[in-house]
Backbone:
């Protein structure tokens, strides 16, 4: 038949080899057969036990007067409130002086 020629057999063998090469490349690059997409759920008990021990040693939730910060933390709300109070008292003092002068 027409498909049994030597040329046709050689063409098909080259196409088969090209197809197999393409399939191998896709398998290596995209399917990632050596990796799995479903992993076991993590076992957090060991990590939580270590974390509990570390927190018990350092006790960061307990206020200790000896504990110092590496850098000072300025409370700008208190600072602003003090500035406003000083300004109000300054205005009150000035108004008292003007009343006394009259």
Residues:
């Amino acid at each position: 038949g027409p498909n049994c020629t030597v040329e046709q057999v050689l063409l098909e063998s080259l196409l088969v080899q090209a197809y197999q090469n393409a399939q191998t490349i896709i398998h290596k690059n995209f399917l990632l057969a050596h990796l799995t997409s479903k992993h076991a759920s993590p076992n957090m008990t060991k990590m939580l036990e270590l974390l509990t021990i570390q927190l018990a040693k350092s006790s960061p939730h307990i206020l200790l007067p000896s504990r110092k910060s590496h850098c000072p933390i300025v409370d700008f709300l208190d600072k602003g409130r003090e500035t406003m109070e000083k300004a109000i008292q300054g205005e009150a003092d000035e108004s008292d002086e003007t009343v006394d002068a009259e």
